[in-house]
Amino acid sequence: MTQNENTKNRPLKDCIAVVTGASRGAGRGIAMELGAAGATVYVTGRSTRAQPADTYGQLLALSDMPAVPGSIDDTAEEVTRMGGRGIAVRCDHTREEDVKALFAQVEREAGRIDLLVNNAWGGHETFTGVFDAPFWEHPLANWDSMFDRGVRNHLVASRFAAPLMVRAKRGLIVTTTFWDRGRYMKGNLFYDLAKASMTRLAFGMAQELKPHGVASVAVSPGWMRTEFVLAGHKTDEAHWQERPALAGTESPRYLGRAVAALAGDPQVMEKTGEVLRVADLARAYGFTDIDGRQVKAFEM
Question: Which domains does the chain carry?
Fold first, then answer.
């Protein structure tokens, strides 16, 4: 293989990335696709093979699952198997000292960070099985899980990553969110507020980072077939097409391919501050989901 061929097949071979909340779901899909593009990926989260996260009891009961799926160890191995280098680092992103230690390790081992994907999300921890209800009927615990263990996670990680990127005068921060052109997500005010806050966080960071050559964007997938979604529909990734209700879903790796495309775009600064839908990025960059489809954008 020539150098040009290697660069084409592994366009992110020189990229140092951190993907938070990557034990499962969106984070796992993102980490895997960054690995497929050749990146070194620090895979973070609380779930290890030896000690899974213990805050999902309510959701596990609703999903009829015996244990929380996935771990940072599993994801890191997948990153390496797909052609990158996966490094599992246990990190509770609600603990500032954990996050500080994570980025100190990245700086010590890699000397820099090129890409931070903010994805650690605690909103599932208080899910009661009811998404659509008036705000006065949703438990106030949703505020704590979605803001203190969601929005705050993104801000804390960005605070430690930003100085490293500013010093290098380059870098990209991707914040995973949900966005449908500013429409209100009727039935879950807490979720709507949290996702709007994440979108605004990405926008605000972009304004302060732009003079330093660092980009910040929010990226919105559609309805993803995460492990919990599949379990809720009593199916798995091999058989989801047998469930008509899941026809419009996309795999977490579709989002991963969007993030990889942004990370490999030398003109990504032109998009800084924007909210980007995965479906729109698929058309712009020419990628598909793992089943070959360009899934339409989810719209309310």
Answer: 3-285 (3.40.50.720)
